[in-house]
């Protein structure tokens, strides 16, 4: 039974809704006295809408602004007292891998890693949470859950009673994405920090849908500079995400920005970006299926002519023919003026073919070479001869602003990957954008999700012999208890993400790094020549690091606040539950040392000593350290080079005298070494 509202309607909200219908640009967002977002009228703009002359008001300027922007900027710049704790049991090849998986809030991760990876990332790809109006909004200082939002916006009271039931008001005020400001405040500080990671030729790709596309573009212009905008990719998802009465939305966007457009242009002046043709694997798969079904060459050609009418296979138009080398299209041998006028002998007609108008573009010797190599396509009906342009020799092309990929989920690893996500990114799409960068570059994804980006990095390395590395960051967001992932035992998205990398790595190594398909071979013998088997050193491991509070006790940061009666409890400035390896990684962060460097642990004179990249950094966090250990470390050499930096616990020496002598020993035996204590 429908209940009475038992309160009068909020006329102000109704009036704002009506104004928004007539003048949508005059209704904006602001915070009320309690800090909650609400819709309000921009009266200066409304005056201008109702006037036929310029109305005096605030100075106009072009910019993106929203309630909370200054707070978001402050949040981006504020320091944090946190650290990264290693987790060997969840890692793969912990001691040797160059890949990182950071578990925790990505804003914290971006702050912690910035000194180490400043200007070192070649490519960033992110697929941030879309402002869809679902119950989940990314958990950070700007997040609001559904109940909190409805309470703040006046939809419901504290008891959960609905205050407004006007459908039009709900559509106008909530507009699916609720308010834009919270979403913008969430993403803004992350993008500002992300910019610092990009190298001079670094590029960032950001996926988004219609809800925040316009605002994201303006934000990216502000953060990276409008001149550093490269392109906006429209990605055909081949699936509808809503039940709109008007248009079935089956696409998303991906913005591309670079750190320095002039530097990038100079670098690629002679080597343009090149990516594999869209859906090449699926196209070749279909060709091979036709072959295995016993279709003749002419039948396959006719089928391919029909197939390439579809947008997803438009890149293969004219690649309708094949021989023992593989698929090819016919290329023009003429198209020049005053070319070679010597005719070619056609073995199919047993006579000379006609010469193209203007002559052949190649001389007599080159044409004879092409004939010997069977690279000329002759015709029985008397058409001009053409050159064979093979697909495997022209597999690359300039990236197109419209991309289409196979959207069928890959269940060969585990079906749980796709279930927690509304529209998971496809491996082929990420591989394509990765392929525009250096083969040895560092890729980062700080909205990792199921770690499609990590999977793509490893797969692409296996295919082209690259040495790309990755940094994934993922919040341990709980999985829906009704999802397949949760039922399979994965409690968080981060757990799914790590398991995918493990399984993908094993599968890639098992396949030997070659492109394979479970149903049929994708390539002819000639096509296989372009696929490079993975080297034995292919890195499919990852080092798991989890964000946690600092290893240092409060006394370390606020020693002046310790009371006299608490002094005996504050002798040790390190938290009791932290391991030596925990301390090592906080030292690496503080020193700005690459977190993927090799780590070796060795027992020397009964003490545990860490060697990072042999002599880059050496650390001993044991207590009762004596002069004998100090002297041996001071004499350590790797490739005739001394230790660059060494770290001890401040209270780790056997006595104050040993601590003082330790500095003197290093000054005498290894003056190049920088000595530090925690």
For the biggest β-sheet, the strand order reads: 3-20-4-19-18-5-6-8-7-17
The percentage helix is: 25-40%
| Tally of contiguous helical segments | 20
Rounded radius of gyration (Å): 32 Å
What's the average pLDDT? 83
Describe the model.
The protein has 678 residues and is of the alpha/beta class. 31% of the residues lie in helices and 18% in strands. It contains 20 helices and 25 strands. A ten-stranded mixed sheet has the order 3-20-4-19-18-5-6-8-7-17, sandwiched between helices. Strands 21-22-23-24-25 form a five-stranded mixed sheet, covered by helices on one side. A four-stranded antiparallel sheet has the order 10-11-15-14. The model is unreliable at 1-8, 139-144, 151-155, 163-177, 513-534 and 566-570 (pLDDT under 50).
Précis, in short:
The protein has 678 residues and is α/β, with parallel strands linked by helices.
Task: Note the main attributes of this structure.
single chain; 678 residues; alpha/beta; 10-stranded mixed beta sheet; 25 strands; disordered N terminus
Lay out the secondary structure.
Blueprint (H helix, E strand, L loop, with lengths): L10 H12 L4 E5 L5 E5 L1 H7 L19 H9 L4 E5 L13 E4 L2 H12 L3 E6 L19 H7 L14 H8 L5 H18 E11 L1 H15 L4 E8 L14 E8 L2 H7 L7 E2 L3 H13 L4 H11 L13 E3 L2 E7 L12 E2 L4 E2 L11 H9 L3 E2 L8 E5 L5 E2 L4 E3 L22 H8 L7 E4 L6 H13 L4 E6 L9 H4 L5 H18 L32 E7 L4 H4 L22 H12 L7 E6 L2 E6 L4 E4 L6 H8 L10 E4 L7 H14 L4 E4 L1
Parallel strand pairs: 4-19, 4-20, 5-6, 5-18, 7-17, 18-19, 23-24, 24-25
Antiparallel strand pairs: 1-2, 3-20, 6-8, 7-8, 9-16, 10-11, 11-15, 12-13, 14-15, 21-22, 22-23
Helix pairs in contact: 1-6, 3-7, 4-7, 4-18, 7-8, 13-14, 14-16, 19-20
């Amino acid at each position: 039974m429908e209940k009475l509202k038992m309160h009068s309607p909020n006329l102000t909200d109704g009036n704002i809704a009506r104004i928004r219908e007539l003048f949508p640009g005059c209704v904006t967002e602001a915070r009320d006295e309690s800090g909650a977002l609400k819709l309000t009228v921009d009266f200066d703009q409304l005056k201008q809408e109702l006037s036929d002359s310029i109305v005096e008001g605030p100075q106009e300027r072009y910019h993106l602004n929203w309630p909370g922007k200054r707070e978001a900027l402050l949040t981006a710049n504020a320091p944090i007292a946190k650290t990264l704790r290693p987790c060997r049991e969840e890692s793969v090849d912990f001691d040797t891998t160059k890949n990182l998986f950071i578990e925790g809030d990505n804003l914290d991760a971006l702050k912690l890693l910035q000194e180490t990876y400043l200007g070192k990332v070649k490519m960033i790809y992110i697929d941030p949470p879309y402002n869809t109006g679902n119950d989940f909004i990314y958990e950070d200082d700007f997040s609001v859950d559904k109940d909190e939002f409805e309470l703040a916006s006046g939809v419901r009271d504290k008891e959960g009673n609905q205050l407004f039931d006007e459908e039009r008001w709900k559509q106008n005020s909530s507009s699916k994405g609720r308010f834009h400001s919270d979403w913008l405040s969430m993403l803004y500080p992350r993008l500002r920090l992300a910019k610092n990671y990009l190298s001079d030729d670094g590029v960032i790709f950001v996926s988004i849908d219609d809800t925040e596309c316009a605002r994201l573009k303006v934000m990216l212009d502000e953060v990276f500079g409008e001149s550093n905008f490269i392109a906006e990719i429209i990605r055909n998802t081949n699936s509808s995400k809503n039940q709109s009465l008007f248009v079935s939305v089956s696409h998303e966007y991906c913005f591309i920005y670079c750190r320095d457009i002039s530097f990038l242009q100079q670098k690629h002046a002679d080597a343009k970006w090149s990516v594999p043709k869209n859906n090449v694997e699926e196209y070749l798969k279909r060709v091979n299926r036709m072959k295995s079904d016993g279709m003749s060459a002419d039948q396959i050609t006719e089928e391919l002519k029909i197939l390439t009418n579809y947008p997803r296979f438009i890149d293969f138009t004219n690649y309708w023919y094949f021989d023992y080398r593989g698929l090819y299209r016919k290329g023009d041998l003429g198209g020049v003026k005053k070319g070679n006028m010597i005719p070619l002998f056609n073995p199919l007609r047993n006579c000379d073919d006609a010469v193209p108008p203007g002559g052949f573009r190649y001389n007599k010797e080159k044409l004879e070479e092409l004939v010997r190599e069977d690279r000329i396509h002759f015709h029985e009906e008397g058409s001009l001869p053409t050159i064979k342009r093979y697909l495997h020799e022209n597999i690359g092309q300039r990236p197109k602003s419209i991309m289409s990929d196979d959207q069928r989920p890959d269940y060969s690893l585990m079906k749980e990957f796709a279930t927690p996500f509304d529209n998971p990114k496809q491996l082929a799409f990420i591989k394509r954008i990765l392929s525009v960068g250096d083969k040895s570059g560092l890729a980062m994804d700080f909205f990792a999700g199921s770690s499609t980006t990590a999977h793509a990095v490893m797969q692409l390395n296996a295919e082209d012999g690259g040495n790309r590395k990755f940094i994934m960051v993922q919040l341990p967001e709980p999985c829906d208890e009704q999802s397949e992932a949760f039922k399979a035992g994965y409690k968080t998205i981060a757990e799914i993400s790590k398991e995918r990398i493990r399984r993908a790595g094993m599968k890639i190594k098992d396949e030997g790094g070659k492109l394979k398909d479970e149903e049929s071979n994708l390539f002819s013998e000639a096509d296989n020549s372009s696929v490079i088997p993975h080297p034995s050193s292919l890195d499919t491991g990852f080092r798991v690091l989890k964000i946690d509070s600092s290893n240092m006790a409060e006394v370390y940061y606020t020693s002046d606040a310790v009371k006299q009666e608490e002094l005996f409890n504050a002798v040790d400035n390190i938290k009791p539950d932290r391991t030596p390896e925990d301390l090592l990684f906080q030292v690496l962060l503080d020193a700005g040392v690459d977190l993927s460097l090799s780590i070796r642990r060795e027992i020397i004179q009964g003490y545990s000593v860490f060697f990072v990249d042999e002599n880059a950094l050496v650390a001993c966090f044991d207590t009762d350290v004596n002069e004998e250990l100090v002297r041996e470390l001071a004499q350590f050499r790797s490739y005739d080079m001394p230790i660059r930096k060494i770290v001890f616990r401040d209270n780790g020496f056997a006595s104050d005298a040993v601590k003082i002598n330790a500095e003197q020993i290093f000054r005498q035996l290894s003056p190049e070494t920088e000595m530090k204590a925690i």
